Amino acid sequence: MSETTAAVAAPTASVAAPAAAPRGGRRVARRVALDTARVVLALFFGFSAVAKIMAHESAVQSFDRMGWGSGAMYTIGGLEMAGAVALLVPLLAGVAAMALAGLLAGASIVQLTLLDPPNAVMPALLIAVVVLIARDRKDRTAELAALLRGLTAARRGGQ
């Protein structure tokens, strides 16, 4: 009986030890997934921005349909480009994700009210992704805030 107990106990002990490994593996998988999402979203927003900044016919037509002028088109294109670039900078990615969540919320509302309501789903889904990125980058965002507070304090001290 003791041999059977020892044979059963040994595998159980070896199974319990690696339980910590999947946790680390999940963290790595989450990091890879979110980093991939950041790059894909940066490309998405970059291409969308270029269409607006270059006044591509499709962008002009969309803004005309909304009754908005070219100034709004260029502004939104500029914001998208800034967000795309900032998503690729680790220190700025969290702030960029939060800003892009606001831009996407506006896009979803515009789709619902002025354009094609079924297309409002896409920006709403992307909000979920940028919120996950912002949450993942909260430590870097706090680091950025501390850096900016330090610069502000140094400026005040130097005056």
Quick structural gist:
With 159 residues, this protein is mainly α. Helix content is 85%, strand content 0%. The chain has helices at residues 2-16, 20-53, 57-66, 70-87, 93-113, 121-136, 138-158.
Fraction in helix? over 70%
Unreliable runs = 1-20
Nearest-integer average pLDDT: 86
Over all CA atoms, what is the radius of gyration?
24 Å
What class would the helix/strand composition place it in? mainly alpha
How many strands appear in the DSSP assignment?
A: 0
Name the overall outline: globular
By DSSP (H or I, 4+ residues per run), the number of helices equals 7
Q: What oligomeric state is this?
A: single chain
H/E element sequence: HHHHHHH
Q: What's the end-to-end separation, in Å?
A: 82 Å
Strand content bin: under 5%
Biggest sheet architecture: none
Explain the overall architecture.
The chain is built from seven helices and no strands. With 159 residues, the protein is an all-alpha fold. The model is unreliable at 1-20 (pLDDT under 50). The chain has helices at residues 2-16, 20-53, 57-66, 70-87, 93-113, 121-136, 138-158. It is globular.
Features:
159 residues, 0% strand, disordered N terminus
What's the structural blueprint in terms of helices and strands?
Elements: H1 2-16, H2 20-53, H3 57-66, H4 70-87, H5 93-113, H6 121-136, H7 138-158
